[in-house]
Amino acid sequence: MSGPSLGRRQAALGLLASALTLTSCGEPAEEIIPYVEAPEGQVPGLPRRFATTLALNGYGRGVLATCFEGRPVKLEGNALHPASLGGTDAFTEAAILSLYDPDRSRTVRQEGRPASFEAFLSALKPRLAALEARGGAGLHLLTGHVTSPTLRRLIGRLRARFPAAQWHAEEPVDERNALAGAEAAFGQRLRARPRLESARVVLTLDADPLGPGPEQVAHARAFAARRQARRGREAPFLRLYAAEPLLTNTGAKADHRLALRPWEVRDLAIALAARLGAAVAEPDLPPAARRFLDALAADLQAHPGEAVALAGPWAPPELHALVHWINVRLGAPVDYLPAPEPALPLAPLAEALRDGSLDTLLILGANPAYDAPADLGFGEALGKSRALTIHLGPWRDETAMLCRWHLPERHPLEDWADHLAPDGTASIAQPLITPLHGGHSAATVLGLLGGRDGLDAHAALRETWMEAWGEAAFEPLWRQALHDGVVAGSAAVPVLPPAPALPDLPPAPLPPGLALLLRPDPMLWDGRFANNPWLQECPKPLTRQVWGNALLLAPAEARARALRDGDLVRLRLGGRELTAPVMLQPGMAEGVAALHLGGGRQRAGAIGDGIGANAYALRQDAARWMLPGLELEASGEQAELLRPQEAHKLEGESTRLLPTLSLEEFAARAAMPPAEQPQPASLFPAVGGQAGAAWAMVIDTTLCIGCNACVLACRAENNVPVVGPEEVAARRDMHWLRIDTYHLGESEQDPRPGFQPVPCMHCETAPCEPVCPVAASVHDAEGLNVQVYNRCIGTRFCQGNCPYKVRRFNFHGYADGQEYANQGDPLVAAQRNPEVTVRGRGVMEKCTYCTQRISAARRAAAREGREIADGEVQTACQSACPAQAISFGDLKKPGSAVSALRREPQHYALLEELNTRPRTTYLAQARNANPALEDEA
């Protein structure tokens, strides 16, 4: 929330406090290798870049970190890493802010009171000696999903010392159904990895490969490679079918989508298998589903070796097994990788806590007191246990509060680690900054239990890779792996699975009442990111909601229950109750309700506490994703749903703002020679003839998957402040770049959403400029529409005259003395990019095309006596985009990428009829419809 302005003395003291707080900001003691060769020594003011790795659900994604004098300020994708390929997702972009989170744990605690690490060792060592005497019986270890070769090696050493110890692993968003399905089909645990870049027809069965998750970036890049509509391009254009109960990012991009309840998705898959020759009875399907199946089956069979079906992680094991049978039948482009032996699940650990057989529990990074299924009663059992319970984590979260000992964990950007990508490629994470609050590594704590006192993560990592490479070859390979961000040649080798068996597919009984579907939150994932304000304030891709979650219902389902947007309802299931607001979601199947995980945190921190509803309170261990028998009761109260897009809605029909054309229409236009359209007359002075470059941006809406990576990248790069839910409710959000979601379909059952990123248009005849009384909004020598902050007097005339609604006003000092919650902490200021001004109260701001990056490229080119090369300047949004939907460059260069894209037949300008001549333009969506289904469009 906001506070009073700081006086000069207070500001000076705050700056001093910031300097003292950040005395640890600097490069770690161990040698780290810069990604780009830099001059000897550190040049003040010039950034350096380092390769490292961040993990999601245990899987590594490569990043390049930009650091100023040992202070990381921005993360971008590592083009050499197979899970990032140069792009990022929202979680990666926001990770930099979590490094500077003031709520991070700083102190070892015993029973909630500050203690020392030495006191912890004094309590632990006698317990370990007793455990060793009885072979480790009563010792339990709980982790998340671990791919790290080093941590798995140390866990192996621990189990060798304590043979009776038990290792449990728990992830709220896990792969258990997928692995169980592979085991049912092939008799062995295999991970299926589709090669979408080799597919021409894709079917998703309640799957969301373009949605949030460890493989979103790789899937988006592969998807985009097959969805390029370009003049003269002869490569096949992928066709996407989706059958799903809840609208997803993937369903939004589908050429044909069918809203089906989960049990109807299962019936569709069985019917498809029957069409492909499976010895199963074809279930009865509704007429629309049967028509969908007829066209789908013919299309899949017409593309052997280039057609693939996918099932989501929440799909039941028998559906995964059936999909494996279908893919083998189609000769689908799928790689199968062996999965490691599993750790024990969470349920036996909860039972051990209750029956008293547990003596010592070490929890590494997990938070089961919050995210364990409610029927396990894990938090209650942990709180009542008299065992020695130890929690290592970066925050004092719900689990830390119930453990006897809590150890602060280092942030991933402060520590050494290694991870495997989903394809098995190993990468090494190197620290970018001296730990801000000290803290400890998982490797150090595991070393203690394995008999290696004083082991640090750096030494543990080197031991692991020295064993793999040998001492003679180690140093060059180690340095190369740090430099590149990947271990060359380490990807897993696919295996050839045996012939799949058809699973048992008895008729599924119709579930009673309403079925509750649980899904990971697009911005908060499983709740671990709830204390990150960038993610809380970033609109979810399809609902556009911020600062909370809601119970999603199909409009027809809501009408049948006399419910409206914002109605607070009580959810009753299995003897438990939860309250949440209702949100109508077109495109959902009737008979189901959906709720995102990650809300309702109680110990997240100043940002995340009390935001949203806690879906885990209704979750069951045996039914983690679909829970039948949900009862809804209206409370008679209303809650405000925060959706910023409603404050910035453009005037016009959706189909004009975001046009769509078929491949046939595209081909007809492409057959015609490109022609320059004459510009209408304007009273504004021309800007195109000025000296220097003519910077422009083209956004391909066919490729945009609505993931928000660009939105978060813009925020990180340009010091865009958080305003908080109260200001959002007053229609005062501050994003420089937004993604508008339009419903292009003609019915609420088939809304056909489309995504349109909207930065500043940088109009050549900009309506914002002539109305500014102090010339704060002007054109520069390269035609950019710039904002001169120290001239701005806050009349907001420019904002009122902008038809694109891309200007944002600082009604308060959102980054200058009146910050939301704890965002005024000096530590948060350390994240800010020193190349971008921090704006104060009363100033208008907007997208600048990352002018600081243009300036850096201009200076580099001048030093080297050359012109700026095409592609040398990449805006933050462009660099982040996993689908490479954004192109940026100089229009004056005839061969530049943006010049070529502007000549494509589907090129258009947003609100072109206003004659603002925007430098930001678009390519219309191209759709590869199946003619057999097209008459229902």
Structural overview:
The chain is of the alpha/beta class. It is 27% helix and 19% strand. The protein has a seven-stranded mixed β-sheet with strand order 5-4-16-15-14-6-7, with helices on one face. β2 (59-68) and β3 (71-77) form a beta hairpin. The longest helix is centred in the first third of the chain and has 17 residues, at 117-133. Mean pLDDT is 94; it is low at 1-24.
Helix content: 25-40%
Largest sheet strand order: 5-4-16-15-14-6-7
Q: Could you list the spans in which at least 5 consecutive residues all have pLDDT below 50?
A: 1-24
Name the shape in a single word.
globular
Count of helical regions: 28
Question: What would the keywords be for this entry?
Answer:
28 helices; six-stranded mixed β-barrel; alpha/beta
Write the layout of secondary structure elements.
Elements lengths: L7 H14 L26 E9 L2 E10 L2 E7 L12 H10 L9 E2 L2 E2 L2 H17 L5 E5 L5 H13 L4 E4 L6 H11 L3 E5 L6 E5 L10 H10 L13 E6 L4 H5 L2 E4 L2 H14 L11 H15 L5 E5 L5 H14 L3 E5 L8 H9 L4 E5 L3 H4 L6 H7 L3 E6 L11 E4 L8 E4 L5 E4 L12 H8 L7 H13 L1 H14 L29 E6 L13 H4 L14 E3 L1 H6 L6 E7 L2 E9 L7 E5 L29 E13 L15 H4 L2 E3 H9 L23 E6 L8 H9 L7 H5 L8 E6 L9 E6 L18 E3 L5 E3 L9 H4 L7 E2 L16 H4 L14 E2 L5 H13 L12 H5 L5 E5 L6 H5 L5 E2 L11 E4 L1 E3 L3 H4 L3
Parallel strand pairs: 6-7, 6-14, 9-10, 9-12, 10-11, 14-15, 15-16, 19-23, 20-22, 25-36, 26-35
Antiparallel strand pairs: 1-2, 2-3, 4-5, 4-16, 8-13, 17-18, 19-24, 20-23, 21-22, 21-24, 26-33, 27-28, 29-30, 31-32, 34-35
Helix pairs in contact: 2-21, 4-14, 4-15, 5-10, 8-9, 8-10, 11-13, 15-16
